[in-house]
Amino acid sequence: MLFFVNQPKISQPHPLLDAHRPVYNYPMIFYIVRAIIRFGIWLIADVEVHGLENIDLKRPGLLVATNHLGRLDAALVYILLDRPDILLPIAEKYRTSLFWRVVSRALNTIFIDRYNADIAALRACLNTIKKGGVVVLAPEGTRSPTSSLQEGKPGVCYIASKAGVPITPVGLWGSEDHLLDANLKRLRRSHITVNIGPAFTLPKLESRERAAALERDTTEMMCHIAALLPPSYRGIYADLQRTQELLSRAETAAPSTAAASSLA
What we know:
Layout: H1 27-44, E1 45-50, E2 62-66, H2 73-80, E3 86-87, E4 89-91, H3 98-107, E5 110-112, H4 119-130, E6 134-137, H5 155-163, E7 167-173, H6 177-185, E8 190-196, H7 210-226, H8 241-257, E9 260-262
Helix pairs in contact: 1-2, 4-5
């Protein structure tokens, strides 16, 4: 997932950006589309947010990592982050849809190749952070078919290391497509919970044994996300010692930080 208004300059054109020029010269379009998205979410869901104090919206250069459950996840970014310089990638399969092409043009998103090394998208992420923007990524790479955490991919950790920024973990639940569809059929609003954890910094990535280091860092990142989720959503990271350590730490800090807000 990724969105941006101030498009980063890429050394070579992105192959999936043909006939998809950004319209950041018209910021009003962005704000209108964002307002429509926010209203649409308000109509269909009540969004409960925990840990909003853990994300500094005024900080330049933010990297957010979240689990991915449903199509609505990307839209949630626009009610959580009140700033326009957001980069959120969209799966390349949506490029064939006229609706998604129109929406992505209005929001200046990029379509990303999830199955091959997308160097241009990587540069876009790094340049966005370098210019002080926000990058939001789902390390699993796609929606979880079981709602529980799947194995994370190392791209987010690589970006964090190259950009020299911490990762802000986010765990969300209640946004699964089948739950939203079932509630819409009954004319009921869904309840979505977003849990934002404290940012954490990974060790500097050394050139030697980089693959092993990225695997270690990816596990660390996914454990941070797992610790923000209910037990049934933690997936393959549920029983790892690091996840249990983070859960214990959160329980200790809970009395002083237990606060929630509703955004819809």
